[in-house]
Amino acid sequence: MAMQRVVIVGGGTAGWMTAAALAKLLPGQCDVRLVESEAIGIVGVGEATLPHIRAFNERLGIDEADFMAATRATFKLGIEFENWGRIGDSYIHPFGTFGPGMGEVDFHQFWLRLRQQGMDVPDLDRFSMACTMARMNRFALPSRDPRQLNSTFGYAYQFDATLYAPYLRAIAEKMGARRTEGRIVTVHRDGESGDVTSVELESGEKIEGDLFVDCSGFVSLLLDKTLSEPFEDWSKWLLNDRATAMPCRTEGAVTPFTGVIAMPFGWRWRIPLQHRTGNGYVYSSQFLSDEDAATALIGAVEGERIAEPRVLRFKAGRRRRSWVNNCVGVGLASGFLEPLESTSIYLIQAAITALLELFPEKQISPVDRDEFNRLIDLEYDRIRDFLILHYHATERTDTPYWDYVRTMRIPDTLAEKMELFRRRGRVVKYREGVFLDASWVAVYLGQRVIPEGHDLRADPPSAESLVAGMQKLAADIQGLAGGMEDHAAYLRRYCPMKDAA
Known about the structure:
Layout: E1 4-9, H1 12-25, E2 30-36, H2 52-59, H3 64-70, E3 74-76, E4 78-82, E5 90-94, H4 107-116, H5 129-136, E6 138-139, E7 156-158, H6 161-174, E8 178-181, E9 184-189, E10 196-201, E11 206-208, E12 211-214, H7 221-226, E13 231-233, E14 242-248, E15 258-263, E16 266-272, E17 277-283, H8 290-300, E18 310-313, E19 317-319, E20 323-324, E21 327-329, E22 335-336, H9 344-357, H10 366-392, H11 400-407, H12 412-424, H13 437-446, H14 463-482, E23 485-486, H15 487-494
Parallel strand pairs: 1-2, 1-12, 2-8, 4-15, 12-21
Antiparallel strand pairs: 3-7, 4-5, 6-23, 9-10, 10-11, 13-19, 14-17, 14-18, 15-16, 16-17, 19-22, 20-21
């Protein structure tokens, strides 16, 4: 069988993740060629990830310590949300579980039962290894033994996105992927099928292919500009359309979590790396000007700024289809959801995984293409609902921005989920999708969506035995986390950064 000629349009994180994965995991089945222009540049602000990236790196044979040193990465146990439910509130969305359940009954149901009975039990995050480690600024790799308490958490990374793409490029080129420098000026299509046949560079060179992957970012050169695939606009629910980003010198702790601080007209991120801290203000231009956002960000960061604020413009939503004809959109070319829950790189990874599983043997099958689109739509739609939850489940009334999101009509799919949780703490379970039960529970309770009741199957154990067991569990978690190494010290020993400026 002849190798499929795959042409990747655009580099950056999406392009080089795609090139590395195809070259490594489909050897001899596809010829990978990536076209990018150094003059265009990359967005390069997304620095926080979800635990799924570890599996992606492992499939590529990446050594974790080497990767972290090269990208000046830190560990990430979750995301801390400040001022979201009410000003002064703080909770952590952890990468891991809340305590052990019993059979089919989740741990939080027993906790809810005791709270509803007026029993004195610790806050739910005291039963999370990830939350406790994050609060104490400690880190250790999780145990691989599921019987151990320190196997109940996961982790991701916070890294310099401008260094991740070059790191992947080296891997991809070692595996046979080829890079071509140049700006694309024309996209040629077949007159009958509408398929893309080649891209033409300013130099006049034509690069032909069988399958084209659009990694051109917000430009969406193939899906939008060439194939005119419609865009589903979700800005009525996710109204933020700007971000101003600015790195600064680190003066606070190098925390093993991402900080997400609600602001009067949006929210601010804090992402500590080994060599600096990433900051940004995500906001709606309906309520805040770019100049005022930059001023607010400069006034809020912890240390001396390393660069001036730069503004990014975007719109929340996705293409109606991410695979059209012989073009597959990966990353921003396919859709965009603001980085509130660090899902951007995950969505790239999800598209690559689906493409690998449905990669055309010879001819592109409409069945495979439809399945790819179903999977990607599902990922975007469920993340959309999870993000909207953060805004809608607020009690803030201090600005018109928070009044709008608190009172807006939300998608029916989210309204149903929220009502089920309010009724008796039930979390809708899915076989597919990125966020599992603990994630939803953390945000619901963290933002004061308090159930009226609980799962009746949590009633049989005596209250006294449950309280005693919970107190012991919280003490064991506290003791185990307290014996771990300081996060910054762990980084210095495990993966000291390379080429520090």
